[in-house]
Design goal:
Length: 302
């Protein structure tokens, strides 16, 4: 059901160096310039189709789910997934070039994938033309007070996630749960429904079988534990790629500390910073047009 779109979808299954699988999708066909998109913790990139559709006016869009998410499928629950995420991103970049051909490639990443990409770029760089990062949750290690608040938020998110149910009788039950969350407020119903469907998998062919979250709550909770991510902060100073950090606005934002930490990241390393008016942490779902405009303008002016 989640493959039904008004644009073409070309799929490639690739395997990373540890055997984990990643499903790449090229949305809308080939174009001279490419932009790669991915999602945040616990989510799935098929929920971001409205955002991707806006980008298709200018780019070939390649979308992928992080390991243990969406169409990349369930996988091993890692106690400390951050080192592996940072290894995955360069391997995924190479797989995209091998699967869809070499061409100038930009990135527009949300949350988990944005933090993973910028930290990976400091360790094992790839020739990204530009990177647009939507509220990357990079620990603000150069500000102890802000770091304490940041870690406290993520400890709360981790504890809450560990008690989350994994199994649902049908996607409507997950949709109802997301609708009750402030984080998912302001997302149009078609996109919220699509996101929920993409976050679930039915492992039994029986049409009456229940649906499971692709990303196990334990994996999502371990990802919210960002203490180990602090180890990779200093490498960001080595990033040469033009980087833009995009934040939401404080009024109505579900986690305003992420605005502060993203703005500090930009100020520390000399990255451009801009905002999506009326957007929360899920601004690409809430304001896909405005969110895409920032990525397009930044990429095409470089």
């Amino acid at each position: 059901m989640i493959e039904e779109t008004d644009f073409s979808v070309e799929r490639k299954l690739v395997h990373l160096s540890d055997g984990a699988r990643i499903t790449l999708r090229r949305w809308g066909g080939a174009k001279p310039l490419r932009i790669v998109i991915s999602h945040g913790n616990g989510l799935a990139i098929d929920g971001f189709t409205a955002f991707g559709r806006e980008l298709m006016n200018h780019f070939e869009v390649v979308a992928f789910d992080m390991r243990n998410h969406g169409q990349s499928g369930p996988g091993e629950v890692l106690d400390d997934p951050w080192p592996r995420y940072l290894t995955d991103i360069p391997e995924i970049f190479d797989a995209i070039q091998n699967s869809f051909g070499q061409k100038p490639t930009h990135g527009a990443f949300h949350s988990l994938s944005s933090a993973s990409t910028i930290m990976a770029q400091g360790l094992d760089p790839r020739p990204w033309k530009t990177l647009t990062l939507y509220e990357p949750p990079v620990p603000p290690v150069n500000n102890p007070i802000l770091l304490d608040a940041f870690q406290s938020l993520h400890a709360t998110l981790s504890a809450r996630t560990r008690s989350r149910r994994r199994r649902f009788a049908d996607p409507a039950r997950l949709i109802a749960s997301l609708e009750r969350s402030q984080t998912f407020g302001g997302i149009p119903a078609p996109q919220l429904n699509r996101l929920a469907e993409a976050m679930l998998i039915r492992t039994d062919a029986d049409p009456n079988a229940p649906w499971d979250l692709v990303c196990a709550p334990e994996m999502e909770a371990n990802t919210f534990d960002t203490r180990r991510a602090c180890d990779f902060y200093e490498g960001i100073a080595r990033v040469q790629t033009p980087v833009q950090v995009v934040v939401g606005t404080t009024l109505g934002h579900d986690m305003p500390i992420l605005i502060k930490t993203a703005e500090l990241l930009a100020a520390t390393f000399g990255f451009k910073v801009t905002c999506v008016e009326g957007g929360g942490h899920l601004m690409q779902l809430q304001r896909p047009n405005r969110s895409a405009e920032h990525a397009v303008r930044f990429a095409l002016n470089r």
